[in-house]
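[job 4471] stage=fold_predict status=RUNNING
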Amino acid sequence: MIAFLTGRVAARGAGTAVIDVGGVGMTVQCTPSALSRLHVGETGTVATSLVVREESLTLFGFADDDEKHLFEQLQTASGVGPRLALAMLSVHSPSSLRHAVSTEDTTALTRVPGIGKKGAQRIVLELRGKLDAPVLTDGTLPGSEAAGTGSEPNGAWRGQVVSGLVNLGWSAKDAEAAASAVAAEAEHTDDVAVLLRSALRRLSRA
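[job 4471] inference complete, writing structure tokens
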């Protein structure tokens, strides 16, 4: 089990980052909150979960151990694989996901691309009462600097929000429109994870 990675961030794209660990470039599929803390050329740390398939080994990256733990718990529900679990954590924070399941808020769950009404009902049925309390940490991972706010230089958030939405299955046109819709919020925060979730909520209501 690879619990976490620390190394220089060699590249960052729509939902992925490449971390140079001892001269080996490790590609990691990341949640928006994890991705917002990684800056090309700087040292970064992500909690990780390795998913082993017959044809592939895939590393998934998270901002903290709580995201990682919930990612693994979500996959205990039938029909929820790692990609869908990652999408759920892209749309909702861990606390809002736990709340949606505990209160049987299927509408919140259907905001995730790939989850319909029946799928949301199944997830609630199978996971209600089974999601553990949040994993408490000091907000940082071993070997990392202070986690920080996950902010980006002014204006840099837009490209990442658009890329993240496209990576989740929305068209480029819809992604651009949603990014424009949250531009006012960006005047108060440039946290990519917050802005991406806000854009996804707007698209889900459209």
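[job 4471] summary: The chain is about 40% helix and 20% strand.
[job 4471] exit 0
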